[in-house]
Design goal:
single chain, Rossmann fold, Dihydrodipicolinate Reductase, domain 2, 27% helix
Length: 460
């Protein structure tokens, strides 16, 4: 089982020469029989944390690294950790050259590029860990759910709180009837976001592409546009065509458990109230009312989302102090200001009202009624989100935030983003999966056509 000859290639001329060694897959498995051979796409910023978390479980053998900015400072930490691991700037080249040598892929790239990487991986029978939200459009998310089922892979969306205490508590409390007949949910994220205070009149002006960046690979399947530094390093979150705003960024951390265990599915109405609307970037403030129909014996439920610095939600008089998980990572720009209302939720059920925070923080019952309740025992999580994914790859656990679970949550958020983009109340048919009262908004379920050469990922 000898290794193949060492080869070198140069990316974009000004990049440093990137060397890689192609090992026999059989040799890799013999060296680490109990580990999952993992390729990591996106290794800077949030990607750095994802790679470290997956590697830290002791269950992952990192065999390939990919990032469109290998020469940038924020990728150097991971490159130093794995100096001998093959590295690429384009995931397509990584799959072409090393695809037979890894079993799973982590994806921690900007929102708009999740889809093609995940679809290529799943079509080759590779397991996928994908940061939230799963896809950029309603259609992309539907295709990702279908691919997960078709190819029988483990697929985990990276809302890490879905493997922490809140998930197990919410499940136990709904099964025991402590949380029941919920008719109203208030969810909020009022911290400063990158687009607050910005005014734009169109795409940013063209700038020279830095030598450290593979811009063609970075822009992925998005219709071609000129490079500008104002799109990079998290700034893409501000733009409709690249990111998913505050809702797509934080909704999956705040109301994910309510969505799953209350079986909310897809809403039939989404009504926005916006401040500072723009056709290019997200509003300065958004109130989005999602109206879900009755589900069997469960009553209709209205979930209202609030974002914006001054767009504070109405809260119960006995709300008290906020619920804050100390393990929550800070936003990609700045920190959460705990002097204002931290991200969280209020859940109004039959006879009881609950307050909660974000990620894995547990619910608290408002009022004195809690003292008289016999609450069920809540089991401890057997594995964190990263270990859960790798164990699922090995067939020992199931992904807790599989695309089947996370997909409808992300599609709900995608509908909210369409309502923001068009500043219009939408009526949605969950069976036909169509927006029935707004032709332009209905077309956005599919999104803009991919640029030439990227259509293939929609056919996998």
């Amino acid at each position: 089982m000898s290794s193949l000859p060492r080869r070198e290639f140069l990316k974009k001329g000004a990049l440093a020469t990137v060397a890689f060694t192609a090992f026999s897959p059989r040799l890799l498995r013999a060296a680490a029989p109990d580990k999952v051979n993992l390729a990591c796409v996106g290794i800077g910023n949030r990607g750095r944390d994802v790679v470290k978390e997956l590697h830290g479980t002791g269950l992952a053998n990192i065999v390939a690294l990919c990032d469109t900015e290998l020469g940038a400072p924020h990728t150097q930490d991971i490159l130093r950790m794995f100096p001998d691991v093959p590295r690429f700037t384009d995931f397509r080249e990584m799959f072409d050259k090393l695809g037979k040598q890894f079993d799973a892929v982590s994806i921690a790239t900007p929102d708009f590029s999740h889809f093609p990487i995940a679809m290529l991986a799943m079509s080759q029978g590779k397991h996928v860990y994908c940061e939230k939200p799963a896809g950029q459009t309603f259609r992309e998310i539907a295709l990702m759910m279908a691919a997960e089922k078709k190819y029988g892979v483990a697929a985990q969306m990276g809302n890490q709180g879905h493997s922490e205490a809140n998930t197990f508590q919410f499940k136990a409390w709904t099964e025991a009837g402590v949380i029941r007949n919920v008719t109203k949910i208030t969810a909020f994220m009022n911290s400063r976001r990158r687009w607050h205070g910005k005014t734009v009149t169109g795409p940013l002006p063209a700038e020279a592409v830095p030598a450290s960046l593979d811009w063609d690979a970075w822009i992925s399947s998005v219709p071609a546009r000129d490079y500008n530094r104002g799109y990079l390093n998290g700034e893409w979150r501000s733009w409709y065509h690249l990111g998913n705003g505050a809702l797509g960024d934080w909704g999956a951390h705040i109301f994910d458990t309510a969505h799953e265990f209350l079986h909310l599915g897809l809403p039939t109405e989404i009504e926005p109230t916006l401040e500072g609307w723009s056709p290019f970037i997200f509003p300065q403030a958004s109130t989005l009312a999602f109206r879900f129909p009755a589900r069997g014996a469960l009553p209709p439920c209205e979930l209202t989302w609030y974002d914006g610095l001054k767009n504070l939600p109405p809260l119960p008089e006995n709300m008290g102090t906020a619920v804050v998980d100390p393990n929550i990572p800070p936003p990609s720009a700045g920190t959460i200001d705990t002097k204002v209302q931290p991200p969280g939720k209020v859940i109004y059920g039959e006879g009881l009202t609950f307050k909660g925070g974000s990620h894995g923080s547990t619910l608290q019952i408002l009022g004195p009624a809690a003292a008289d309740l016999k609450l069920p025992e809540v089991p401890r999580s057997p594995s964190n989100h990263f270990k859960n994914f790798l164990l699922a790859c090995k067939g020992e656990e199931k992904c807790r935030s599989s695309f089947a679970v996370a997909g409808p949550l992300c599609q709900t958020m995608a509908l909210g983003i369409i309502a923001q983009r068009h500043n219009a109340k939408l009526t949605f048919d969950p069976v036909a999966q169509r927006i029935t009262n707004h032709t332009e908004a209905d077309a956005m379920l599919t999104g803009l056509p991919p640029r030439a050469g990227w259509e293939q990922y929609y056919r996998l």
